[in-house]
Design brief:
With 219 residues, this protein is of the alpha+beta class. It has two domains: 107 residues, S-adenosyl-l-methionine hydroxide adenosyltransferase, N-terminal (Rossmann fold, 3-Layer(aba) Sandwich); 92 residues, Elongation Factor Tu (Ef-tu), domain 3, CATH 2.40.30.90. 16% of the residues lie in helices and 28% in strands. It has four helices and 13 strands. The strands form two sheets. Strands 6, 7, 8, 9, 10, 11, 12 and 13 form an eight-stranded antiparallel β-sheet that branches. A five-stranded mixed β-sheet has the order 1-3-2-4-5, with helices on one face. Strand 7 and strand 8 form a beta hairpin. The protein is elongated, with a radius of gyration of 20 Å. The two termini are 36 Å apart.
Length: 219
């Protein structure tokens, strides 16, 4: 899955971009859990389309903010876990058994107690300055060094100039072959978000950009 160890942010991003492609009713178990064995809660979430079972550490931030949530439950009922769960492997001993019980029709509310205050990451959302400039951020850098931003196609219209780390890229391209090898391009990627790449190169290294850095779009 290409999630670096303990990287809850990347896990949250990959989950929010992949779950819509699963059938309705899917039970997703997502475990990137640097706090395993501590007092952090284990939770399960029921949305309009699916279930999510995960540690309460912000991994479900985008799900909780962007989906229609029906229920959030802290997994406090040991009868739905494996006996004597390990303090270092809750994925096996708590999360997976809970998902199995959900698949057999056990109601979510039987798994534990309601949660009103799930942990949320400080997820960036686009903003528009008075001069019309749209300010976005790099959400994710993939293994090719492409910069995936939080700006969606709906935020961008007409001829634009995309600025990253002081470098300006004019217009949006359709695909990588629209520019010469080694040249930068901005385009709408497969997740529907603005991306910045270097054809046959690495944009993150070329521009010395990492997750969280600003991206500016001007009309």
């Amino acid at each position: 899955h290409n999630v670096p160890p303990q990287d809850v942010w990347t896990a949250a991003y990959l989950l929010t971009t992949s779950h819509p492609y699963f059938p309705a009713g899917t039970i997703h178990v997502a475990v990137v859990d640097p706090g395993v064995g501590t007092r952090r809660r284990a939770i399960a979430v029921e949305t309009q389309r699916a279930f999510f079972v995960a540690p309460d550490n912000g991994l479900l931030t985008c799900i909780l903010k962007e989906e229609k949530v029906h229920k959030i439950v802290a997994l406090t009922e040991p009868r739905y876990w494996l006996p004597e769960p390990s303090s270092t492997f809750h994925g096996r001993d708590i999360f997976a058994p809970v998902a199995a019980h959900l698949s057999r029709g056990v109601p979510l509310e039987e798994m534990g107690t309601p949660v009103q205050d799930p942990v949320l990451l400080d997820w960036p959302y686009p903003l528009k300055r008075p001069d019309g400039t749209i300010v976005g951020h790099v959400l994710h850098v993939d293994r090719f060094g492409n910069l995936i931003t939080n700006l969606e196609e709906k935020h961008i219209s007409g001829d634009v100039v995309v600025e990253v780390a002081g470098h300006k890229i004019e217009g949006l391209k359709r695909t990588f072959a629209d520019v010469e090898p080694g040249k930068p391009l901005a385009y709408i990627g497969s997740t529907g978000r603005l991306e910045i790449a270097i054809r046959q190169g690495n944009a993150a290294q070329t521009f010395n950009v990492r997750r969280g850095d600003k991206i500016l779009v001007r009309g």
